[in-house]
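Changelog excerpt

This revision adds worked examples to the README so contributors can see how folded entries look when concatenated. The first example is reproduced verbatim below.
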Amino acid sequence: MKKRIAVTALMAALIVVGGGFLWARAVFTGDAVRSALAAQLAKAIGQPVTIGEISASAFPRVEIRLGDVAIGSPVRVRLADLRVGTDVRALLSRRIEHGSVRLNGARIELPLPPINMPERPNEPSGAAAARPSPVQIVSIDEIVLRDVEIVSGGRTLRGDVELEPRDREILLRRASLAADGTRMTATGRILDLSGPSGEIAVKASALNVDQLARFASAFSGGAASERAAPSSRRRTGSAMLNLAVSLDADRATFRGLVLDKFSGRARISAQAVALDPIRFSVFGGRYDGSATFAPASDALAFRARATVADVDVAAATRFAGNPDTISGRLSGRLDCSGRASDAADIASTIRGTARVDIVDGVVKNLGLLRTIVVATSMRPGAGGGLTGWSKDEKFSRLGATLRIANGDLTSDDIRFESENLMLDAQGAVQTMASTVNLKGKVQLSDALSQQGGSDLLRYTQESGRVTLPATVAGPIAAPHVAIDTADLTKRAIRNAAADEVEKRLTNDSVKKGLLGLLRR
């Protein structure tokens, strides 16, 4: 008896499932349903939609399967396998309500065509309700995309995306994407698909700032030209791209420059990627400020305002194309802009101002102290005894306020301080030509001023120290230091005359004092 009941129940279940499948196939397949779905989708998003094939299943949930779906003209979205599921209660009314969309395999080419977001997505319009339709899409609660390719700016992202449509926005529950060995995850919300516009939080192993700017530009580039007579309410495509993105990456790159521990908040539009604030490590130091990047033909325009701290100067000059010239740790502030296609392009186009202070470094092949010793010895061949001296000049501090333009760094307040001397100068460093041209004065330390002898100190002193006019010119890698002997001679004559006047005044005072005593 029990066996007969079980067999009967199994047969009933098979009949129900089989009947449900046949009914679902009858209701949700066929050319009429395929055409109706394509028309409804086209009306909903405002773009042409074609559906190559359609089928249905009833277990474990009623699903309509759409194959070879194309969206746009020209086609920018291709969907290989799209499954739309619905509840049984909705099935009885030929409606897709509280449905789910699952996509396996898709290719999306940016820029996207203009896509409508109905103001009342869960309610059919009066005209649509009046027309009979084999099936009606009422609401979708979940969209899951698997193995999706997003192509933009010559770069292809692949991955999975989970979305949840809401009343007037789409919740990005999770996106997991990869490109060129870089993996990133994202969450957030999309307020308007046409732009798109919204707020997204991105975490990545690495970011390429150049490609990010071009990728963002391609989101809506050209969309405005395809939009026919937009209404006053609707903005053009390029203006609609408006994403607020929080970024957190282990590493980012910009024209070959590696930025570690990259974080910030970006405003992405079709015109630019504006990061404010932005923080990262570069050349062993820290950058804290803002930056804007905008595609410009085959280059990338940029603007940066920031403070920097503890930057490895040797690494920075090596990147700029002048290795083994100077070392130390740099701190300061900058405000500059330019265009970049490579490291050399950055150096030649950058313009702006900066204040820099470098501590505990070495200027290679400067030979400043060596030159002073030779110049003040007043003996031919005096340099022969200095063969063991290094021409590398150590310093405790090197600071300047810089004007940056055309690859030149110019300053009126360069100060070089070391244990033995101090140099105050003005002039320029030509980074493109790798040359330097400075003019100023060198003061020896108190100790060296005393060691130079009383005559040298008497004839060259300024503020109690040996002070010499000097020029630094020539290749950055091996500059030539010279003492301006003509100026030195003038100072010696001036100081000697001052000493003579002082002596005479002193003698006159002594004589007057003696005469006064004798007259008493």
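The second example, added in the same revision:
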Amino acid sequence: GAIYDIGFELYQKILEEAVNELKADEFQHVFDQSEHDITDLFANEDISIELDEDAYLPESFISSDTDRFGYYKKLYNIKSNIELNELQKELEDKYGKLPKETKNLLYVVKLRSAAVKTGLDKIIIKPNKIILVFPEESNERYYKEAFPIVLDYLQTIDNANLKQGKLRLTCEIDIIDRNEAAELLWKLKRSMEFIEV
């Protein structure tokens, strides 16, 4: 009964998070971390990506609500640039030239797939700037195990400015273009692969 009330996908996600938390905390000694991607410990599937422009699949591009919903679902599950490029090609082959809003959406998905395992809570893209929003300070594990690696990486970037706000730590980085923002996030993700637990 409870599964039907909250929906199977949400139930599955909650169950998966609970199992991962148990593996990472109470039963860490049982599970050999070398068999798992350590960045999964800091993954934030709900990371927010803010862009100053509209990012969606217009009805004028994909008229079927069902097809649009199906593509949104596929986009949410993208894990790599290869998958994203394949889906972009599929959209172009099936529907033609991509409208600006769809290109923006694909860019947001590209950023999300790079950033989801970094532990960040939010990415804000402004003209010539990317802002990384870190988790709340109460996330002790992140700040003990992941943040030192993140900080080491950020120190290699000349114009990275950490700022402590009232609630969150942020990092503002000047960028030349949107592609630089995506590359920066992929490098951050790769640097976190060296975290030892």
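Reviewer comment on example two: The longest strand covers residues 169-174. The chain has two domains: 1-31, 32-192.
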